[in-house]
Amino acid sequence: RIADYVGFHVPYFSPDPEAADAEPKTADFLVADGGDLENVNLIQMLLRGVENIVLFMDFEIPLAARSAYNPFTGLPRFSDVEDIPSYFGIPHIPETVEDIFDWLGQDFTRNKVFRSFHYPFVIDKLQKAQATGKGAVATVELTTVDNEWWGVKGGDKVSVTFVYLSKAVGFEEELPENVRTEATTGTPDPQDLTTSGKFEGFPHYPTGAAEITHEQSNLLANFCAWIIEQNEDVFREALS
């Protein structure tokens, strides 16, 4: 990984009140953002034995429509879907130099906690939900597989509700005309996003810089609330 070569290793020690006068003993730590290993904390919930899980996956990469990506016939490209493949041991296919650097800066290769066989069915269900214009929300029943690195035990049955951030035509149609003009492109294609203006890229704002405006934040918050309302029955069932 690139982190091994660009100086993210640091000598670190944990303070010990009982040995305040002693010379601290350091260990070599690789310092990184937690998202370098996992972004949505699914694995931590599995480790805690949570049986009904709701995952809000607010990614920068939209979920590709079936016309652009068929999960039953090919491996996902970086531009098709974020993170979900890693939980099923499915590799991503980089397309650009930026994709390669993203891959080098992360390590999701140890994150398989579900059978690979189930991956395309999860994506298929999300794509079908997305096509309704009410949001990519889908509940699936899954069984864990052994993951020695994380300590996940195989054989546990869990219900996972995936909420993948994605444009929803129904929401766009309800927006005031001036907002709709600035925030949408008028097409149902989830990958066809605005490329300029104060709502550029809505709803997939880049979060790394933490520079989202009040207008962007309010629109995104209202959008997520609308998704929950439109899928009320799904959430009630998931949390019951």
In short:
The chain is an alpha+beta fold.
Textual characterization of the structure:
The protein has 240 residues and is an alpha+beta fold. It has 7 helices and 5 strands. The strands form 2 sheets. A 3-stranded mixed sheet has the order 3-5-4. The protein has a two-stranded antiparallel sheet with strand order 1-2. The longest helix is centred in the last third of the chain and has 17 residues. The radius of gyration is 20 Å and the shape is globular. It starts with 8 loop residues before the first strand and ends with a helix. The mean pLDDT is 88.
Assign the structural class, choosing from mainly alpha, mainly beta, alpha/beta, alpha+beta, or little secondary structure.
alpha+beta
Strand order of the largest sheet: 3-5-4
Number of strands: 5
How would you describe the shape?
globular
Radius of gyration: 20 Å
Strand content: 5-15%
Mean pLDDT: 88
Q: Could you list some keywords that capture this structure?
A:
single chain; 240 residues; alpha+beta; 3-stranded mixed beta sheet; two-stranded antiparallel ribbon; 27% helix
